[in-house]
Specification:
It catalyses: carbamoyl phosphate + L-ornithine = L-citrulline + phosphate + H(+). One of its GO terms (cellular component) is cytoplasm. One of its GO terms (biological process) is citrulline biosynthetic process. The protein has 314 residues and is an alpha/beta fold. The chain has helices at residues 15-38, 62-73, 94-102, 115-124, 139-153, 169-181, 197-210, 220-224, 244-251, 258-261, 284-287, 294-312, and strands spanning 51-56, 77-82, 107-111, 129-133, 160-164, 184-188, 214-217, 229-232, 269-272. It is built from twelve helices and nine strands. The protein has a five-stranded parallel beta sheet. A four-stranded parallel beta sheet has the order 2-1-3-4, with helices on both faces. Helix 7 links the parallel strand 6 and strand 7.
Length: 314
């Protein structure tokens, strides 16, 4: 089944394609040590001779490094760029930047602000464009999250993931991705911080085909009850620093503590997309405790993105 031209939303992948990406990511992870030892150019060959532009308009650690290593290990050449270095920062339209980059490179990975900005770039580009984060979605993170969940529990059907906190881009992609693979997703959020209503509606449409359920509540205990994974994110993301104090007061009941985690299944895992603020959205006892899989989750960004790039550029 051919992959979509771009990955602007996790919804661009069918359920079959998403499961295929997860299977490939698992194989790439298992093979990585042997490949690195046997192949001096670190390449699996999927991107041999190809260049991938990494356009970052927001600071990043995991996304930037994992994509740069992913392209290198697939045999390609990563080309890191910032908007300050391009005409994009001096008035060139986003679509024109996409058109020009398409004449030089073979794919564009973009970490930016508004989803519309990403879509304008993709409209101008004639090569695959990958959403490495927008204010609306974080699809590559969601693939790594599913990979980590499946490593812990083996399957998705009959399982539930609870996301507690801001109904943000991470929650949006989790809702869509979970619904596609049959994983029920519950979002527990403070008043005024619900996930996008359109995303929730779309997730429920997808869930109707897989037997998953999608629930949104302001009760964190109800969200977590019996869940197989408990997930949270920072209370104020990049660009929301001015709201940090107001959010901190409102989000306290949604902090993932040992007491809240105790409402989940006995073998529940804790997930966080990082960076984490210990003592704010999660206690140190949870994120550094035995249920935490956050560093496996961070590592899986590499394997998930390699699988996505290999599929998109096949």
């Amino acid at each position: 089944m051919p992959f979509p031209d771009d990955l602007l939303s996790i919804d661009d992948l069918s359920a079959e394609q998403l499961l295929q990406v997860l299977d490939v990511a698992d194989r790439l992870k298992a093979d990585r040590g042997e490949r690195l030892a046997a192949d001096s150019d670190l390449a699996h060959g999927a991107l041999r001779g190809r260049t991938v532009a990494l356009l970052f308009e927001k600071p990043s650690t995991r996304t930037r490094v994992s994509f740069q290593v992913a392209v290198t290990e697939l045999g390609g050449q990563p080309l890191p760029l910032s908007s300050a270095e391009l005409q994009l920062g001096r008035g060139e339209t986003v679509a024109d930047t996409g058109a020009v980059l398409s004449r030089y490179v073979h794919a564009i990975v973009v970490r930016t602000f508004a989803q519309q900005r990403l879509e304008e770039l993709a409209d101008g580009a004639s090569i695959p464009v990958v959403n490495a984060l927008t204010d609306l979605e974080h699809p590559c993170q969601a693939v790594a999250d599913l990979q980590t969940f499946r490593e812990a529990h083996g399957d998705f059907h009959g399982r539930a993931l609870a996301y507690v906190g801001d109904g943000n881009n991470v929650a949006h992609s989790l809702l869509l991705a979970g619904a596609k693979v049959g994983l029920s997703v519950r979002v527990g959020h403070p008043e005024g911080h619900a996930p996008d209503a359109g995303i929730v509606t779309r997730a429920r449409q997808l869930a109707a085909d897989t037997g998953a359920t999608i629930e949104v509540t302001t009760d964190p205990v109800a969200a977590v009850a019996g869940a197989d994974a408990v997930y949270t994110d920072v209370w104020a993301s990049m660009g929301q620093e001015a709201e940090a104090a107001e959010r901190a007061a409102r989000f306290v009941p949604y902090r993932v503590t040992e007491q809240l985690l105790a409402h989940a299944a006995t073998d529940a895992v804790f997930l966080h997309c990082l960076p984490a603020h210990r003592g704010e959205e999660v206690t140190a006892e949870v994120i550094d405790g035995p249920a935490s899989r956050v560093f496996d989750q961070a590592e899986n960004r590499l394997h998930a993105q390699k699988a996505l790039l290999a599929g998109l550029l096949a």
